[in-house]
Amino acid sequence: MTLKKIWLLIPLTFLLSGCQITYYMKSAWEQAKLLDKRVPIKRVLEDPNTSEEVKAKLRLAQQAREFAEKKLNLKPTKNYTSYADIKRPYVSWIVRAAPVYELKHHLWGFPLVGKLPYKGYFSKEEADEEASLFPANEYDTYVRGVTAYSTLGWFEDPLMNTMMNYKDHDLVNLIIHETVHATLYIKSQADFNERLATFIGNIGTEMYYLDKEGEDSPSLKTIKVEAEDDKVFSDFISRELDTLDQWYKDNKDKITPEKKAERITEIKTRFESEALPKMKTENFAKFGRQDLNNAKLLSFKTYVYDLTDFDRAFKHLGSDFSRFVEFCKSLEKEKDPETTLKNIVTKS
To answer: pLDDT tens across 165-211, in order?
Structure first.
């Protein structure tokens, strides 16, 4: 059944150009090889060669999966009921691109999921090659490895060795995050989908530890401290992205590489002086030392841009996950679900 689903994708590629056909056929083949490595969790746990650390992570992931389905009312699937050791630190590498003087996603078109602000490859070399196709004087690019992704219910996604180094509460968050994608994914709305999954993942993880360990849970205390830092960073980067976007628009045709570099440096300087001193963890400490460009900055917009509207809608619906997810599903046919969400919660 799995291979059948993969090869069902292949005929779609013949509607595309030659290079796209090659990309989809190779991606399908690599996905098939990954799925072929799956081993049922029960067998992995019974294997004497499996380390106790990995066994503990696998058990935790199973508990988080069950919690997401039964307590958060997310879609029941067979995801994460198997394990795959793919013998590398990342499952794939994604490419992002943005105009050099504009804070705007470059979008790639795909069958089924629509337009996305990134393109994935199963090797870094191919991702780097894709990035090299964008002229450096016209586009900023960003390539990064990812440790997990969702096939949105098409396949039974396995847990992988790439996920085993997560802190326990981060692994719980990841499982909930990816289960959100399997539950709801609006075509061509990557920012909305990822921010929704981030929002539910964060709150769901707190609920998980409250349910399992109670209000005095050490994990819950850590999560809440990190959540405070997340809020500080989200407020900071949301404000900076909005201001930078306006700066590009106001100075169109006047910007030079030097002026842009100065403007990016200002963002990092403000982070060090304004945001970092408010933080209690080291989770964002490296931000001010990163090489930033428009493509990398937009990755923050996808995942951690202002989540206030999601929070307002969630509370307006009585903090009921089932009602909240159904409400978000009602936005599936909206051309701009983020704006619709904002307008609805503003009127509420």
So the answer is: 999 999 999 999 999 999 999 999 999 999 999 999 999 999 999 99
SS3 120: strand
Please indicate, yes or no, whether the overall pTM of this predicted structure exceeds 0.85.
yes
Nearest to 64 by CA among 225, 218, 211, 182: 211
**CA 81/CA 232 separation, integer angstroms:** 36
**Residue 66: CB atoms within 10 Å:** 13
> How far is 312 from 295, CA to CA, in rounded Å?
29
Handedness of CA 197, 238, 300, 247 (dihedral sign): positive
Cα 303 from Cα 192, distance rounded (Å): 9
Residue type (1 letter), 338: E
* Alpha helical stretches, state H, the chain: 2-13, 18-36, 41-46, 52-70, 124-132, 168-183, 190-213, 218-250, 257-270, 294-304, 308-316, 321-329, 337-347
Q: Which residues are CB-neighbours of 303 under 8 A, at least 6 positions away?
A: 194, 195, 198
The radius of gyration of the chain from alpha carbons, rounded to an integer in Å, stands at 21
Residue among 143, 146, 98 nearest 125 (CA): 143
Highest mean pLDDT among 25-34, 105-114, 288-297: 288-297
Which long-range contacts link 62-68 to residues 24+ away (Cβ below 8 Å)?
Answer: 63/212, 64/171, 64/172, 64/175, 64/176, 64/208, 65/175, 65/179, 67/172, 67/176, 67/204, 67/207, 67/208, 67/211, 68/175, 68/176, 68/179, 68/204
CB burial class (10 A; 0-12, 13-18, 19+) of residue 269?
exposed
Binning pLDDT at 50, 70 and 90, where does residue 47 land? very high
pLDDT value, residue 12: 37
Q: Which residue has the tokens 């935790």?
A: 60
